[in-house]
Design brief:
Structural class: mainly alpha
Family: Belongs to the ELO family.
GO molecular function: fatty acid elongase activity
Shape: globular
Order of helices and strands: HHHHHHHHHH
Oligomer: single chain
Largest sheet: none
Protein name: Elongation of very long chain fatty acids protein
Subcellular location: Membrane
Number of strands: 0
Catalytic activity: a very-long-chain acyl-CoA + malonyl-CoA + H(+) = a very-long-chain 3-oxoacyl-CoA + CO2 + CoA
Helix content: 55-70%
Length: about 270
Amino acid sequence: MLQVISDFRQWAYESADPRTRDWFLISNPAYVLTLESAYLYFIYSYGPRMMANRKPYNLKTIISIYNAFMVLANSFFAYKFLRHSYLGGEYNLFCQPMNHSTDENSIALVTNCYWYLLIRALDFLDTVFFVLRKKFDHITAQHVSHHALIVLNGYVFMYMGMDGQTMFGICMNCCIHIVMYSYYFVAMLGPRFKPYLWWKRHLTKAQIYQHIAIIIHGFIPIFYDCGYPPEFIMMMMPQGFLGLALFINFYKFAYENKSLKDSINENVCVLKQD
């Protein structure tokens, strides 16, 4: 058994992206697994017990600052990714191979992907804030699985190779997060700003269209050989279809089912995508 594990680790290392496989937090899966375990332990065990006899914390200012920071951070990375890929890196929008290049542009791209993965890990604070505010009904299986999987998959791609065809989805993800966190920021300003949030329904539609576009674009290397490993596409598709199903289900519940629409809590926000 130990030999099998050793052989697998050797295969994984030899197949990994030589540019990133020895980077801090990427070189050993123990780092990301520890982070994920700590996240799950806090939101499901330690956090609820800690808050059992406490009143909900008033985190309005902290969350507003957090939302503003996430708008700026995602704007920064959207610019960087587009600059080093489709709008300046000579990327092919239809199908882009993965070649583990070491030129200046490619290194800049994967370096920004590394820091962007840390931003996606920072999304864990969304759930932490729910715990500290005792909004336990917001901590759904869908919410938690999405946050956990996006970081885990991000780690795998950073280890094996983040550039290539997947950059399309990363760029779209950045852009949708800019809009989403802008919505959350305005929503935290209070009831008087509610009239300015009329576009929530359209944001949900945009999230659905994003998933559809990423899935369709992601399937291209399976039918057209441009040098991007098809197995990587198959690895990321389950999360794509899961996210699409969740958003479609939310849209139907929130906007199409008239009998249930009136019972929706006014505090329910648009489901988040990463």
